[in-house]
Structures are given as C-alpha cells and as structure tokens.
Write a structure and sequence with these properties.
- It is a single chain.
- With about 190 residues, the protein is mainly alpha-helical.
- The protein has a single domain, classed as VKOR domain (de novo design (two linked rop proteins), Up-down Bundle), CATH 1.20.1440.130.
- Helices cover about 70% and strands about 0% of the residues.
- It contains eight helices and no strands.
- Helix 1 packs antiparallel against helix 3.
- The longest helix is centred in the N-terminal third of the chain and has 30 residues.
Length: about 190
Amino acid sequence: MTLRPATAWYVLVAGVAGLAAALALTVEKIEILIDPTYVPSCSLNPIISCGSVMTTEQASAFGFPNSLIGIVAFTVVLVTGVLSVAKVELPRWYWGGLAIGSLLGAVFVHWLIFQSLYRIGALCPYCMVVWSVTIPLFVVSTSIALRPLGSQRWARILHQWRWSLVAFWFAAVILAILERFWDYWITLV
C-alpha cells in the first residue's frame, strides 16, 4: 500500500534518527570497552548519563549491546522509509510485519524505560531518542497495517487518533521521568 507523503517521510526520519542514535550508542559502548575510564559524550550530569546506563547488564539484555539490535531494526525502518518516499507500494503483510517488529521494540523500550528510571537511576540521551522514535513508529506502523480494515470503527478511530495517542504516551513517559527525578530537577531552579 502507498503511504501519504507525510507518513512516508515520518517513517524515513524515524529510521534515520533511530539508526543515528543506535550507531552513536555503539560507538560510545566500544569506547567504554576500550577504555573503562572513558566518559561518553552524552554523560552530562548524575541523571543524564549514558555511561551509567551503558555499563549495566540491562544495556546488554541478550548478551550483546542492545544498540546492535537498534542498528538492524532501524536499518529496516530506514529502507522502508526510503521505499515509501519513493512511492513503492509495499504489501499489507510487510506493514503487518513492521507493526509486529515495532510492537516488540516498544515492549523492549518500555522495559528499558523502567530499568532506567527505577533500577539504574539515570537517563541516556541516545536511548531516549530511540524511545521517542519507537513509540510513534509502533503507533504509525500499526495504523498503516490496519488501514485496510478502515470499515471497522476501531481501526478508523486508531488511525484518526494516532498522533493524540502518541502525545498521551509521551506525556506519560515524561511525567514518569519528572516524578522519578523530581528531587534533582528542583535543584536546578
């Protein structure tokens, strides 16, 4: 199915942003492995600290750096975006596969959000880029995959309200971040 230009461009930009963040995380992880005293470029303070996150077992949930999963996954998203911008019609099963993949990504990202907030106690900016791309990518790819079911009320509602759903989802994550680190944030004022 062919996408609207804005949606096609969103998928492309999401792929670029996610891939860039995954590559940056991988480079920073390699630097830490080479030199354990290395301070990553994204370690800004006690809370915004990639180094604190990247050295935990959660950063390698499957025995290798999580960012390698991101490189593979966001390459698929990037290629999908390029094909969509070029108006190549991708079959419904492809979008269904992307929706399932992005669902798995969203579940994994939410586990990582929980780990960052309540177990590690630090935020990684590159990781947060991945979070901010994965959530809307899941919603958008699911609404695309379900678009042929547009005659069904729930599919139409999901499609019409997809960006509101993303905004609500972002607000929930932002509120969780604010609440978790409130004691630190108020010291900055």
